[in-house]
Design a protein that fits this description.
This protein has helices spanning about 10-25, 110-120, 180, 190-200, and strands at about 1-5, 5-10, 30, 55, 60-65, 70-75, 80-85, 95, 100, 125-140, 145-155, 170-175. By secondary structure, it is α+β, with helices and mostly antiparallel strands. The structure holds zinc ion (ZN).
Length: about 210
């Protein structure tokens, strides 16, 4: 058994999820490791294209490819409304998601959560607690890289003050998650985290 936050997940289910992830990853046209045709340090062409980690046969340079850490916030109200935002940019343009983004170097996950929620929505995160994580894939200009999304349940000091980052987002909604919206999510990991929260009403910041 693996303990992940509040969830106890049987190993068999973990393996199934990993296999599902691998299948989806390798269906994509270009994985990040497939772009490492030459050693970034000495320039030698690799004889093992797609190997993880990348390892240069001449100078020994290695590259491990992540996954990169990202954070997502389930910003909720006591009435169980959830803040969802619509993406104005690829990947997932026109689809819905949670505020969040990549963790910067030297930054704690909790700091990344507060920074991303502030940057994207203008809201100040108050209390928060770790919820669950899901692997994700980030497709940037056709090259896909593995990401691990860490989801936090959080509240904000004043939910009426949403100011969207207009470069990144074009709509927001405070509402209990509808099936319709869950069917239009930019990232599967966000949908899974929301469904996990919905199925576990005991996970609250208000008790
Ligand atoms: Zn090299």
């Amino acid at each position: 058994m693996i303990h992940l936050g509040f969830a106890v997940i049987p190993r068999k289910l973990v393996r199934l999820a990993q296999n599902e992830f691998k299948k989806e990853y390798f269906m994509r046209a270009r994985t990040i490791e497939s772009t490492f045709r030459f050693c970034p340090d000495c320039g030698l062409e690799t004889q093992e294209l797609g190997r993880v980690p990348f390892r240069c046969q001449r100078c020994g340079y290695s590259h491990f490819f992540g996954p990169v850490a990202a954070v997502g916030g389930l910003v909720v109200t006591e009435q169980k409304d959830l803040l969802m935002v619509r993406r104005a940019q690829q990947p997932g343009k026109g689809k819905w998601g949670l505020p969040g983004g990549f963790v910067d170097r030297g930054e704690r996950i909790e700091e990344a959560l507060a920074r991303e929620v502030m940057e994207e929505t203008g809201l100040t995160v108050g209390r928060s607690r770790y919820l669950i994580s899901f692997p994700n894939l980030y497709d940037y200009r056709g090259v896909v890289a593995p990401v691990i999304d860490l989801f936090y349940l959080c509240v904000v000091s004043d939910s009426s003050e949403v100011v969207l980052d207009a470069d990144e987002l074009d709509q927001f909604v405070w509402a209990p998650p509808s099936q319709d919206r869950l069917d239009q999510m930019a990232f599967e990991s966000n949908r899974k985290a929301i469904q996990y929260w919905m199925k576990n009403p005991n996970l609250s910041l208000f008790d």
